[in-house]
Design a protein that fits this description.
The structure is a single chain. The protein is α/β, with parallel strands linked by helices. The protein folds into 2 domains: 119 residues, Rossmann fold (3-Layer(aba) Sandwich), CATH 3.40.50; 93 residues, Regulator of K+ conductance, C-terminal domain (Alpha-Beta Plaits), CATH 3.30.70. It is built from 9 helices and 13 strands. The strands form 3 sheets. A 6-stranded parallel β-sheet has the order 3-2-1-4-5-6, sandwiched between helices. The chain has a 5-stranded antiparallel β-sheet with strand order 7-8-13-10-11. The chain is elongated, with a radius of gyration of 22 Å.
């Protein structure tokens, strides 16, 4: 399986986390920062770790930055440095640029420059925390266009010990149950989660099951509210 070649520019908490996780998944990662200590701290965990000024055209070109499958611009403040770095990468013709933005104004400017992949970690974390506070049964979610989501929720109490076919996900709730994650006791006495595959009408939902569902956000919220 092709794992890809990535450059991560900016090794604050956000950039470092991306670089480490890419490396753990087998990607070839170049980690770049102008702070020598940050570069040294990550040097043993990635393929390459380089100390340089990412707003310097010659310095970036010296690392053959155009050869990477994607470059992640995770520079923190000031925004001007992130902006200049992104502009240089666009000028070089880098295949794929992912850039960090803080707030709507930064996102607007990057969009106008032609950056289409923009990450706002603070905003995304805030939204995630708010959603979990509002719905404690929510385990995780993937937002999709047009107000749809794929969510993982702890099975509401009124669905437990019921067969999938009895609950009428599609007609009553306008939802699709994709699969179920269930804790299963192994031979060594430990509990591990397993995916049960595509449920049939006789599949029984148990206490502690995690339901993986697809549907409109308002329909998911209604389903949880009715059955809890």
């Amino acid at each position: 399986m092709r794992t890809g070649k990535f450059a991560v520019i900016g090794l604050g908490n956000f950039g470092k986390s991306i670089a480490l996780n890419l490396a753990k998944k087998g990607a070839e990662v170049m980690a770049i920062d102008n702070n020598y200590d940050k570069v040294e701290d990550i040097s043993e965990d990635v393929a390459y770790a380089v100390t340089l000024n990412a707003t310097d055209r010659r310095a970036l070109l010296s690392q053959d930055i155009k050869s990477f499958d994607a470059v992640i611009v995770a520079i923190g403040n000031p925004f001007e440095q992130r902006l200049l770095c992104a502009a240089l990468l666009l000028d070089f013709g880098v295949k794929r640029i992912i850039c960090r933005a803080v707030g709507r104004n930064q996102r607007f400017i990057l969009n106008k420059m032609g950056i289409t992949e923009i990450i706002s970690p603070e905003q995304e974390i805030g939204l995630s925390v708010a959603r979990r506070l509002m719905n404690p049964s929510l385990v995780s979610y993937l937002d999709l266009p047009d107000d749809y989501s794929v969510v993982e929720i702890i099975a509401p109490k009124h669905t437990r010990n019921m067969e999938y076919g009895q609950i009428d996900f599609r007609d009553k709730y306008k939802l699709s149950l994709i699969t179920i994650r269930r804790n299963v006791e192994e031979w060594n006495g430990q509990n591990n989660q397993h995916v049960l595959g595509v449920p049939d009408t006789k599949t029984v939902i148990l206490e502690g099951d995690v339901l993986v569902m697809f549907g409109k956000n308002k329909d998911i919220e209604k389903f949880v509210e009715i059955n809890n």
